[in-house]
Design a protein that fits this description.
- It contains nine helices and 20 strands.
- It is globular.
- By secondary structure, it is an alpha/beta fold.
- The longest helix has 17 residues, at 367-383.
- It is 23% helix and 43% strand.
- The chain has one domain.
- The strands form three sheets. The chain has a nine-stranded mixed sheet with strand order 3-6-8-10-12-14-16-18-20, with helices on one face. The chain has a nine-stranded mixed sheet with strand order 4-5-7-9-11-13-15-17-19. The chain has a two-stranded antiparallel sheet with strand order 1-2.
Amino acid sequence: MSTQIHQDISEETVRQLAAERDEPEWLLETRLDALEALEDLDYPSVIETPGRKWTNLEDLDFEALVDPLTQTEDKDQVGPEDANVASFHEALQDDDLAELVEEHFGSVVDPEQNRLTALSTALFTTGTVVHVPAGVDAEDVKIRTSMTSRSLFNYTLVVTEKNATVTILERQDSAEDVDGERYYSGVVEVDAGENSYVQYGSLQDFDEDTYNYTLKRGDADTYSTVDWIEGNLGSRLTKTSVSTELNGDSSETKIVGAFFGHDDQHFDLDSKVWHRAEHTTADLVTRGVIDDEARSVYEGVQDVGSDAWDTSSYQRENTLMLSDESEADASPKLIINNHDTEASHSATVGQVDEETLFYMENRGVPEQLATDMLVEGFFVPVLEEVEVEELREDLQTRIHERLQ
């Protein structure tokens, strides 16, 4: 295994973080277990081809980026009265929510899944707990996190009971008053109960001095739906993984992604779905644009298990390159272990259509305006999949601003 990730990350550091937040013993033990496992775990998997690794997470200078004892942020978290929306450590002070957190923490995302997940588990200082009781429709949960320190480790837990519904909009950005490079790590677990519906939309808009690692994973019970909407615009380097495990009969998921990179930004994005029960459905849709010397790497995986009879699984990824110096790679995968499956996958990488551009210019549209119109039109199919109007409008606005 590679060298130590950070010389100042020790048992004393972890115990201090837990003590300052008056955490229960079970959580301290979970943190310490993650810390102990840290050095024996691999970094998150990335696409590799002979002679080349597409994203080198091992090259990040965690010594310079991570300052575990000085994590600060501005955070807002609001929701309707009939749902429980609380900061993570406030939830631990509530008897009912504390029991729920203990039951579900680490049940969807293994705290020791990889090296960066274990690091997040050992060091997180902030987060949100969303609990939607049976039969409750919670349409308007909003979480905003603005990082005001060199590093920040964030954890979000969403639990829905039977027949519950929740729509969550999360925004992430960085404050302007912190100099130098920064590191953000976020882990999101969604445990969707029977016949419940979860839509989790997020817009990542960190400054371009920030390195971002995010892992989101959902567990869908019988007749439940877990939908993800991922907007990635900011950061210098983003490595993100969004996935759903369809463990209940007739469960469903949709993973919608949009990204726009420029300058020397690097996006490494993966979407995964595991079909583990009968009559499950998945739809993975991602569209991205890269300009200047930006780079994108996309991996999509549809894994159909041997017991997943009558499965429907679809995947589409399209990347548009606006410059000759930009670079895009895509690797869609189908893993089929059940013949009663309807599945497809596709990925395209290309440039603005010269014929269409020529047609528009000949009708008096300036070249830059024509290009901007084509780019905004390129995002329309994915924006149409975004049911949260506020998130859709935010994405449209930021895409337009990026083009300017």
